[in-house]
Amino acid sequence: MAKNATTLQAKLVKVFLIQVLLISVVTLAGIYAAKIMVQDVLVHEALKGEAEHFW
């Protein structure tokens, strides 16, 4: 019985660590995507403002 409990505990720890890893990867991917989108919008707005200023 003790062996089964240890095996179950090991499985739970493994699943927990996999979930933490996946959540971390998805979070970083979301932050990177938001950064790219915001950066694109800011550059576009800056260029549009410069174009209006000179024309």
UniProtKB/TrEMBL annotation:
GO MF term (any one): kinase activity
Keywords: Kinase, Membrane, Transferase, Transmembrane, Transmembrane helix
Membrane-spanning segments: 12-34
Name listed for the protein in its UniProt record: Sensor histidine kinase
